[in-house]
Amino acid sequence: MVRKSTFTMACMLLTVGCTGLQTKGVSGSETKTGRKSNNNDFSATNDGDNENITIEIVQNKNRKSNTESEKRHSNQETVKVEKSDQINKKNNNNNAYIDESIDNLRVTKLFDENKLVDRSMPNSQIVLQKLAELKKKHQEILLNGTFSQKKAVALQTQLLKAYSNWKGTKYSLGGDSENGIDCSALTRRVYREVYGYELPRQTIQQIKVGAHIQKENLKPGDIVFFRPEGNNHTAVYLGDTLFINASSSKGVVISTLENTYWNKYFRYGVRVRAV
């Protein structure tokens, strides 16, 4: 009986000793990580893993470049991505443009005017000719132009990208989607995509957001206001008499002020103060 009690006591002591070792191991882990750990708390363990991953990502981002040229290249890539995100609010350019870098105002491929023009509309040949002339000007400016001239090219590039997103969309009074759109909705959409600026929805309100501009003083991005047969109509000026237009008969097209109809009903341009 005495032997049995002695043996039982020894086992109990051994068990306590093992438990103490296990507890001591957990305590040591707490000291190392600076946080409490619980075998039944999986979120605590996962948080610790996430912290390690975060540290690795930060270190990679802040890694010093081996050479100055590598550092400059890295910075240029960052700027290009950020500005591209601002410009390309709709990721669909219908192959009219391939790439654009606004940080150094270099366009790697100019537009194809043949993909931008609806040949069934009146004066389509004039629009094609005007776009061809515009592209030639862009080529000359990108080679030898001033900084301000290159900025104008960049703006026209953005306007044409926005147009290509909506090209061919049918006209629908009150419409504001790819299923149908009216003139003021298109004008607002173009401003949203190019400038990140929200115009009023109604035509009569859009023409109140800036200064009135005469035809000979129009610049790319100005709103152009028409009053055909007692109706209000807005569009976005592209340059060289061209404007981005939601026509009631042809849908979203590029039109020209050299067209007799549009020239007759043109009233004035509007230069938006906020852009």
SSE order and pairing:
Elements: H1 2-33, H2 42-61, H3 68-87, E1 100-101, E2 106-107, H4 124-144, H5 147-166, E3 176-177, E4 180-181, H6 183-195, H7 203-206, E5 210-213, E6 223-226, E7 233-239, E8 242-247, E9 251-256, H8 260-265, E10 266-272
Helix pairs in contact: 5-6
Low-confidence region ranges: 2-103
Q: Write down the overall mean pLDDT.
A: 72
The count of strands amounts to: 10
Output the number of helix runs.
8
Protein name: NLP/P60 protein
Keywords: Hydrolase, Protease, Signal, Thiol protease
Biased composition (Polar residues): 24-60
GO molecular function: cysteine-type peptidase activity
Describe the structure.
- With 275 residues, the protein is α+β, with helices and mostly antiparallel strands.
- It folds into two domains: 2-61, no CATH class; 108-272, endopeptidase fold (from Nostoc punctiforme) (Alpha-Beta Complex).
- Helix content is 49%, strand content 15%.
- It has helices spanning 2-33, 42-61, 68-87, 124-144, 147-166, 183-195, 203-206, 260-265; strands spanning 100-101, 106-107, 176-177, 180-181, 210-213, 223-226, 233-239, 242-247, 251-256, 266-272.
- The strands form three sheets. Strands 5-10-6-7-8-9 form a six-stranded antiparallel β-sheet. Strands 1-2 form a two-stranded antiparallel sheet. Strands 3-4 form a two-stranded antiparallel sheet.
- β3 and β4 (180-181) form a beta hairpin.
- α5 (147-166) crosses α6.
- The longest helix has 32 residues, at 2-33.
- Residues 2-103 have low confidence and may be disordered.
In short:
With 275 residues, the protein is of the alpha+beta class.
